[in-house]
Amino acid sequence: MSTVIYGMLKEEKQRNLELQAAYTKEIKLLPKGSLVAKRRNDRTYYYLRYREKDKVKTDYIGKENNAAEDIMRDIAKRKQLEIVVKRLKTEYKQICRIVKE
Hints:
By secondary structure, the chain is of the alpha+beta class. It has 2 helices and 3 strands. It has one domain (3-99).
């Protein structure tokens, strides 16, 4: 294999690892789970529902629609980042097979 290509693959491997670490760090800061809206007495209350080990946890968000929209946006961002990390891991495995280190 050409040393230029080999060098590029090694650089790409390192860049891939750095991206995985950065995205994983960002994912940990974002909320996990899903947003649940419950109506009681003509009012809507929002809850964040997620799994922690074997239990399903529910956190009260509030009556405000703005807070719920922010959390929905953060949950969507988390899901997108998880997809990106999954692709990066697949790419990393392929690079490792080629570079054989």
